[in-house]
Amino acid sequence: MTSTPTPSKNEKQENVFLTEKNDLTKLKFYHGVQTKEDAQKILKDFPIGYYLIRSSFLKNEVRLVLFLSVKVTDKDLNAHHYLIESKGSDFVIHQEVVDENAEKKTVVSPPFKDYDEMAKYFRLHRMASGIRLCRPVYRPKWQLRHSEVNYEDAGKLGSGNFCHVYRGKLTRSSTKEEDVAIKVSKTTENDSAALMETRNALLAEAKIMITYNHSNVIKLFGIACDHPPFMVCMEFCIGGSLESALLKYGNEMEEFERQTLLIDAARGMRYLHAQKCVHRDLASRNCLISSDGFVKIADFGLSKTLGANETVFKEALKEAPLVWMAPECVQKESEFSIKSDVWAFGVLIYEVYFNGLKPFADEKDTGIVVKAIRRAKMPLIEEKTKEPKMNHVLSSIWIRKPEERADFQKVLELLVDALVVANMADVKKMQINKLDGVNRKKLPNIETDKADEIAMAFSYNEANDSGRNSRKREKTSRRKSKRRGENTAKTETRATRTPQTSNTKIRKSPTT
Questions:
Q1: CB 146 within 8 Å of CB 184
Q2: Residue 462 pLDDT
């Protein structure tokens, strides 16, 4: 039986949350479960008087209450937040103000039958803060409705500390239905703090992924956070993890297939670094295989987007994946950058050539592992490869000083240079084609021109639009969409330079 998640009894509101007349799950300016800090960030770039409706948990209870958040100033604490309380079939707005005696008091609005009536009233009459309502801030396109997300209990793919993962369907219109992987937050009885922690983690991951658009990076469709359970919808990769494929079919993989899988992953990571994203958890378990046999970088739970002038950041990880960590990450003060991801890619190379086995698999003393990493004394793959240049790829990665380590542009060039000669017959023989639902039909992309990723890194993505309806935003959107179209045309021109036929052989591209 297909499950469409809805609030449990203690999550449903006795007021206006799901009443027929005021169904917030259909309201364009209902932003779901948001803290007041979240609301202030959303309202930051809008004029005074713009507003939204959100919900929040009562302290120590998994029960939602509603708030009207209104921008009242351009200062940091830019919004006032007014409680919405039901009164029979109507509702009222509670406004806290400070009177002339510096005492707090609550001003209660007249009762309203619906949100249109509320908006019309406060456009004509000032609120207690002296502000009139202007326009609503619509929720972004990537914020999904729970009714659009469906999954079956039998479609469970796995579980983590805070979420279950299911295979399901996303229905954005009456005619379009997509297969998706759905992260669903685990239910909690009375721990609203734990539930908000899960919601914050899912939302942070979603905000990192939402603008990404690359054939070797998992696609995010959106997040449903109108009420618990919170859900994140991502592209479904039927082939499962690269780790599972290596463990199952690694013994039969040829050199060409291993190199192809690594080129896919390197392309995805080069794109992410062009977006200033530090992944921090690159491993075969977090690389997925799509139906067309492409490797896609996934799981952005530990990822961080660097600021405009930021190249490194320091942060302690609670659950550090030690074997994949670079020397600068296993010091007293861990330091992360795009170069620490490059180091982890070296471990991924090892996994691919050792059929899913990780370095130091038999070493139980973590102290010995830490010493080896700090000294950059990592195990080699010489016994597993017939291509000497693959060892050169690793030697450019496993360098102790991050500033001397290759970046993913250089890694990709070295991988392409090491690629063995192959044709479409070799593609058909790839072991990943034995995975249910997987059929690789394309040779690896040997284009090393960095312009592909740079063009995409600066592309405008409408999914990140906060919903402002101003003419200025619309003009900007049209202008950037036009640029994106031009960039796409250039990319497609590059992609068609070398047609891939059954007799086409991979030719090594000279390094630059």
A1: no
A2: 38
Q: Which SS3 state, helix, strand or coil, does residue 235 take?
A: strand
Instruction: Look up the domain containing 446 and give its range.
Output: 242-453
The reply to whether 507 falls in a domain is: no
Q: For residue 139, tell me if it sits in a domain.
A: no
Tokens of 192: 């609203």
User: Are 402 and 429 in the same domain?
Assistant: yes
Pairing of strands 51-57, 30-33: parallel
> Is the C-alpha dihedral spanning 334, 340, 346, 347 positive or negative?
positive
In this structure, the answer to whether residues 270 and 346 fall within a common structural domain is yes
Query: Is 299 in the active site?
Result: no
CA-based torsion, 408, 414, 416, 418: positive or negative:
negative
Please give the Cα distance from 100 to 259 (Å, whole number): 74
Sequential DSSP letters for 152-170: EEEEEEEE-SSEEEEEEEE
Q: Which residue has the tokens 């010489």?
A: 382
3-state secondary structure 352-376: HHCCCCCCCCCCCCHHHHHHHHHCC
| Lowest-confidence pick of 98-102, 257-261, 375-379 | 98-102
Count CA atoms within 13 Å of residue 58 on its CB side.
10
Give the Cα separation of 121 and 38 in Å (integer): 26
* Positive or negative torsion for Cα 32, 35, 38, 39: positive
Distance (Å, whole) CA 355 – CA 247: 6
- Distance in angstroms (rounded) separating the CA atoms of residues 3 and 341: 38
Task: Say yes or no to pLDDT of 234 above 60.
Answer: yes
DSSP assignment, residue 138? Answer: P
Same domain, 274 and 223: no
Assign 23 a pLDDT band (cuts: 50, 70, 90): confident
Residues 259 and 389 in one domain: yes
Q: Is the dihedral of CA 276, 277, 282, 286 positive or negative?
A: negative
Determine which helix (DSSP H) or strand (DSSP E) holds 272, and give its type and residue range.
helix 255-274
Count: domains in the chain: 3
Residue 363 in tokens: 């070493």
The residues near 393 (Cβ < 8 Å, ≥ 6 apart) are 349, 411, 414, 415, 418
Domain CATH for 206: 3.30.200.20
Q: Could you tell me if 67 and 214 lie in one domain? A: no
Q: Which residues does 274 contact at the CB level (< 8 Å), separation at least 6?
A: 450, 453, 454, 456, 457
- The active-site residue, picked from 281, 299, 341, 426, is 281
